[in-house]
Design brief:
The protein is an alpha/beta fold and about 525 residues long. It has two domains: about 5-195, Aconitase, domain 3 (2-Layer Sandwich), CATH 3.30.499.10; about 200-205 and about 275-460, Aconitase, domain 3 (2-Layer Sandwich). It is built from 19 helices and 18 strands. The strands form seven sheets. It has a four-stranded parallel β-sheet, covered by helices on one side. The chain has a four-stranded parallel β-sheet with strand order 14-13-15-16, covered by helices on one side. The chain has a two-stranded antiparallel sheet with strand order 1-2. Strand 5, helix 3 and strand 6 form a beta-alpha-beta unit. The protein is globular, with a radius of gyration of 25 Å. The protein starts with a helix and ends in a 34-residue tail after the last helix.
C-alpha cells in the first residue's frame, strides 16, 4: 500500500479510539508505537506515537504496557505564515537546525501558537516525521479544524469526526491559540522568516540557505578531496580558508575574474572549474552519451522518503516545475540518476489526474516503487561507466534527495556528499547537474530562442499548485485505495493455512497463518 507512516495518517490512525467497558463505551486518545523511528509522522495528526525497538513493539502488540520516565516537553511557538517560494521542507530543515542546537534528545516537542493554524496537515506530518532528526521522542501538533478537514478528505466517517472533535474539546485537547501554555522549555519561530534551503553535505541539521549553497559547497568540498592537487589556478580558495568564517567571500584578484559564459564552472565542459578543487574527467557511455564528470556532480536526484512524499504541496510543486522546465526545453543532465518513490499509491493517482506525471518522466523522474528507496540507500548502483570513473578518479560526487537523513555513506557507496532538499529543488538540481551552481545568477539552460532560463522562470506558482491540488485530490481517491487494505494480495490469499490442533487443557489459540489484521505494525498503548 505504501510507506507505513503515510498509510497511518491517510487511513489507519483514528486520533480518538473507543472500547467497550462494563460502564459503557469509553473513548481515549489514539497512540501508536512502531519499529521505525519515523512513526512520529502521526504526530502531525495529533496522535502520540514514536519508534521503539522490536522487543518493546512486540510486547505492546501482546498487550504489555510500555513504561518510560515522564519527559520534559519543549513548547515550540509558531507565528506568522510560510512565505511564497518557501516549502514545508524549508520549514522542517529550519526547525531541525533550531531543535538540534537547543537539544531535545529524550524530550517531547509540542507545537502551539497562532502560526499552527497556518500550517496545513501535510506540512505538520512532514515536521512530525523529522522528529528523529531533531533528536526528540515525539513532535506533536494539536487537534484543530485543520485536523478535521484532513480526516474528512482522507475518508474518515462523519461519526469518527464527531467523536474526535467532541472528545478533544471535552478533554481540553482542542487547540486554542489564545491560551498561554506552560512547558518545561520554550522556543519560537516566525514562519514568515523561512527561506528556501537545503541541508548537507552529511547531517540533516546542517542547513544552508539556497542563495549560499554554491559558496558553502566550495568550502565543504575541501573536506572530501585533496586541498591542492585538483584546484584550478587562483588564490580564492586559500583566502577563504584564511578568512574569518563569518566574513564575506574574498574577491578574485585582478585577472582572475571569470564569467559564467567564458568557461564552464562545473567542469562539465571539460575545463577545470575556477576557485575550487576541480578534475573534469571525460566519460563515454555505450548509448552514445558523452560528458565530463567533476567534483560536485549530482549523480543521484531522487524524490523519495516518507518525509516529503506524503505532502501533495511539494510533490505537485515538483510536477509543475518539471512541466515548466519541459516547456522551456530543459532536460536533466545525462549523468544524473533520477527517480520518484511516493509514500502511497494516492500520489500516483493525483499525478496522473493532474497530467504532471508525463512531464516528470520526460526529464527522467519515473515512479520506481512505493516505499523506502534512495533515502535508505536503495538507489541501486550508478551506471557502470559512471561508477568506475568516480572510483578510479576519486571524485567527490553528490546526491540530492527529498529525504530526512543524509549521513555519509548512507545514500550510495560511490557518493560522498549528500544533500536534503524539497522535491521541486531535487528536480532543479537534476537540471543543474552540479552542487557548484548558483540558481539565482546562473541559467539552467536556454530556450528555443537562445534565451537564458533561470530557476525563477520555472519555479511553481503556489496559487496554481493549490488549484491543482483542489482539482486532483478528493476523498474517493483515498477510500478506494484503502478499501482493501486488510485483504492481502493474491499471494497471501493463496497460502495454505491448515488448522493447528488444540492444546490440551488450554483454550485453543491457532498458531498458523491467519488473515492479516493490518498491513503495518500499529498498536494501541492504552489497555
Amino acid at each position: 500500500m505504501g510507506i507505513v507512516h503515510q498509510v497511518n495518517i491517510e487511513s489507519l490512525a483514528r486520533v480518538v479510539m473507543t472500547r467497550q467497558t462494563q460502564n459503557g463505551l469509553q473513548a481515549y486518545p489514539d497512540t501508536c508505537v512502531g519499529t521505525d523511528s519515523h512513526t512520529t509522522m502521526e504526530n502531525g495528526l495529533g496522535v502520540l506515537g514514536w519508534g521503539v525497538g522490536g522487543i518493546e513493539a512486540e510486547a505492546a502488540m501482546l498487550g504489555q504496557p510500555i513504561s518510560m520516565l515522564i519527559p520534559r516537553v519543549v513548547g515550540f511557538r509558531l507565528t506568522g505564515e510560510i512565505p511564497a517560494g518557501a516549502t514545508a521542507t524549508d520549514v522542517v530543515l529550519t526547525i531541525t537546525q533550531m531543535l538540534r542546537e537547543h537539544g531535545v534528545v529524550g524530550k517531547f516537542v509540542e507545537f502551539y501558537g497562532d502560526g499552527v493554524a497556518e500550517v496545513p496537515l501535510a506540512n505538520r506530518a512532514t515536521i512530525g516525521n523529522m522528529s528523529p532528526e531533531f533528536g526528540s521522542t515525539a513532535a506533536m501538533f494539536p487537534i484543530d479544524q485543520v485536523t478535521m478537514d484532513y480526516m474528512r478528505l482522507t475518508g474518515r466517517t462523519e461519526e469518527q469526526l464527531a467523536l474526535v472533535e467532541a472528545y478533544a474539546k471535552e478533554q481540553k485537547m482542542w487547540h486554542d491559540p489564545s491560551k498561554e501554555l506552560r512547558f518545561s522549555e520554550q522556543l519560537e519561530l516566525d514562519l514568515s522568516t523561512i527561506v528556501p534551503s537545503i541541508s548537507g553535505p552529511k547531517r540533516p541539521q546542517d542547513r544552508i540557505e539556497l542563495t549560499d549553497a554554491k559558496e558553502q559547497f566550495r568550502k565543504d568540498i575541501h573536506n572530501y578531496v585533496d586541498n591542492g592537487a585538483d584546484t584550478a589556478e587562483g588564490t580564492v580558495d586559500e583566502a577563504v580558508e584564511e578568512s574569518f568564517p563569518a566574513s564575506d567571500a574574498p574577491t578574485p584578484a585582478a585577472g582572475q575574474e571569470q564569467d559564467a559564459a567564458d568557461k564552464p564552472r562545473t567542469g562539465q565542459g571539460g575545463q577545470p572549474a575556477a576557485y575550487r578543487p576541480s578534475k573534469p574527467v571525460a566519460v563515454k557511455m555505450p548509448d552514445g552519451r558523452e560528458f565530463h564528470l567533476d567534483h560536485g556532480a549530482v549523480s543521484i536526484a531522487s524524490i523519495t522518503s516518507c518525509t516529503n512524499t506524503s505532502n501533495p504541496n511539494v510533490m505537485l510543486a515538483a510536477g509543475v516545475l518539471a512541466r515548466n522546465a519541459v516547456e522551456k526545453g530543459l532536460v536533466q543532465k545525462p549523468w544524473v540518476k533520477t527517480s520518484i518513490a511516493p509514500g502511497s499509491k494516492v500520489v500516483t493517482d493525483y499525478y496522473e489526474r493532474s497530467g504532471l506525471i508525463e512531464y516528470l518522466e520526460k526529464i527522467g523522474f519515473f515512479i520506481v516503487g512505493y516505499g523506502c528507496t534512495t533515502c535508505i540507500g536503495n538507489s541501486g548502483p550508478l551506471e557502470d561507466e559512471i561508477s568506475k570513473t568516480v572510483q578510479d578518479e576519486d571524485l567527490a560526487v553528490t546526491s540530492v534527495l527529498s529525504g530526512n537523513r543524509n549521513f555519509e555513506g548512507r545514500i550510495n557507496p560511490d557518493v560522498k556528499m549528500n544533500y536534503l532538499a524539497s522535491p521541486p529543488l531535487v528536480v532543479a538540481y537534476a537540471l543543474a547537474g552540479s552542487m557548484d551552481f548558483d540558481f539565482e545568477n546562473e541559467p539552467l539552460g536556454q530556450d528555443s530562442e537562445g534565451k537564458d532560463i533561470y530557476l525563477k522562470d520555472i519555479w511553481p506558482d503556489l496559487t496554481e499548485v493549490q488549484t491543482i491540488i483542489d482539482e486532483s485530490i478528493d476523498t474517493e481517491m483515498f477510500t478506494s485505495k484503502y478499501d482493501t487494505v486488510f485483504d492481502g494480495d493474491h499471494r497471501w490469499k493463496a497460502m495454505d493455512t491448515p488448522k493447528a490442533p488444540p492444546s490440551r487443557g488450554t483454550r485453543h489459540r491457532p498458531t498458523c497463518a491467519r488473515r492479516p489484521t493490518s498491513t503495518v505494525w500499529t498498536w494501541s498503548l492504552a489497555r
